[in-house]
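Researcher: Here's a chain I'd like modeled. Treat it as a single chain, no partners, no ligands.
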Amino acid sequence: MASATASPNASPPLRGRVDRWRRAARRTSGWGGLLYVVPALAILLLFEIWPLLFGIWISLWRWDIGPIRFIGLENYTRLFGEGFVTSDFRGDRVAGDVANSLAVTFYYVLGTVPVTLFLAFGIAYLLFQGIAGQGALRTIYFLPYVTSSVAVALVFAWMFNSQVGVVNAILERMGLPTSTWLRDPRPAAEQLLGGLGVSQSALDAWPDLAAGPSVALVVVIIFSIWTALGYSVVVYLAGMTAIPRDLRDAARVDGAGPWQAMRSVVWPLLAPTTIFLVIFNTITAFQAFTPIYTLTRNVGMGRAEAGGPLDSTLTITVFIFRNFYEKANSVGFAAALSLFLFLLMLGLTLAQFRLLGRSTDES
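Model: Modeled as a single isolated chain. Structure tokens:
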């Protein structure tokens, strides 16, 4: 290393190499290297970090169009207080608005994510077998994901219209009972069990939050599964294509049938893909707003009509929208709800990484 320093007696070629090394070091170290990340860092600060910090600041105020009064943690006290447990007109303890919206949100997530992944894997595996028209089928399944969700939701709402909808027309032709669908706030499980002969008194004994999603929410879940299915199918297909053909051929030589090959070779090797899709679809479901708002905006009552009927489709995102746009002086409370949703999603994502990653390592 001593010879690497420039000295008066150093030869010209060696001195030139040292000078070039010093110039390169100055370009690639210190503040010079930061110039390459400044554009991305500026976008991150402007559109990610600053809105988050400003939202936290707004949540500490009573805020309408602008700040009205600084109230500190009052919005958070309201959120975790009467937002979860409140009293009805008889003085009985009941679930608050935040708890009800979270219950609806969890019903929506649990009804959307597992079914989407199950159907996506099955469809992707069938397409992976090389059936006829594979390219056209991939396009058909992916088309709902890239189509305007608002336009498709309006068509879907017309299909499930209680008076002129195609679904009720088909049920009438088949001699089956029809439904009001998006205008039906009753739990779907209650409808199903009632049709199977379970007494009404037993159904009434169920707590409201444990009664399951409403019929209207089930329609929204069906729509969300249909629109999100194509993306998961394409991702699963990409993961299956990356599986070495030698492994599948070895399983076939060992006498494994299609079911055994899928269970022993394809499914275990798709564990990273499945983890990604579980986390991606969970985050997407928690953030879902457009399908719920579009399908339910004409079935509610009053100013806050989205999320009806009777708040049976009122997810946490629609509840934030109500407080931000439709209630006076509630922008600060909506900001507190948004921060709460962010922390909830962050905690669930970290838990999914930990649990699913651990199960993958053990397998």
